[in-house]
Each structure stands twice: as structure tokens, then as C-alpha cells.
Specification:
Helix 2 packs antiparallel against helix 4, helix 4 runs antiparallel to helix 5 and helix 5 runs antiparallel to helix 6. This protein has one domain. The chain is flat and about 55 Å long. By secondary structure, the protein is an all-alpha fold. The chain has six helices and no strands. Keywords: Membrane, Transmembrane, Transmembrane helix.
Amino acid sequence: MKPINEILKEVKVKIKNSPLDLKLLFLFSFLMTIASIYIHLGSNKDLYRSIIPYTGWSPGQEYLSLLFFIPFFSQNITNLQKSIILTRRLSAALLGISLISGIIFWTLVSPEDYTNPNPYLRYDSLTPIFTIALPLFWILILGGFQLKDYFNNKNNSMTLREF
């Protein structure tokens, strides 16, 4: 079993060698996980009750899995380009699940849910920003970088074929 400091050094190297979009997603996931842990502490019940209408019951849950997922898959396969593609696709799939659940939750909201005095059952008109727009934003970022890499590699392979 490796000591924790060696494992952390490996994670640091993997993140350092990752593309910009995966670095940003990892950083965002880290910040969301820290905020989620802080919010769920017993001493922060009032804070948790005040943000539930905006974030849903488990804010930042999908980002916790990405926090461990990105360093593990970003450098594990022998072909670096394939590992980056796999990491982007699986990260987008996890965010897609969050996006779909946000859309389903949004469509099931009744008008009474906007005025419910219970913070655990109340829904705010700004909730789709956190549950739909944020995962969609990250999916578009990952997809945009993937398309950019695809067209860059396609142009490079075309110029190599000309010679």
C-alpha cells in the first residue's frame, strides 16, 4: 500500500498533465465538494435550509464523483489521447445524469412548491440555474474542447498525408 503523500503526488502530476478543461472541471469539483461538506456539517443547518430551494437536497453530489474520477482515468490508459477522450466522455455522462435529473425535477414542480413554507419542499425559480444550467455548461465545455482537439488532430493528420 502506497503512503498518502505518494498518492497525492501522483494525483498532482496527473492533473498537471491534463488538458485545461479537465483541470478546470477538477478545480470546480474540488471547490463544490468542499462547499458541500461544509454545508452538510451539523453546525450549518440554517445555511443548508436556506440553500436547499436553490440547489436541491444534495448540492454538489455529482461533483464529488468527478473529483475522484478525473485523476484516476485521465492518465491510466497507455494512449494519452484515448484516456483524455474517455475521461471527457465519462465526465460528460455523469454530468448528463445530473442534467436529466434536474430537468425531470423541474418538470414535476407544481405551483404550490414555489410557496411552500417548508424549506425542504420549497422550489425556487432559480433552481434550474444550479440543477440544469451548471451541468449543461460543463458538458458544453467538455464537448467544445473535444471538438477542438478532434479538428486539430484531423488537420494535423491531413497535413501529414500530403507529404
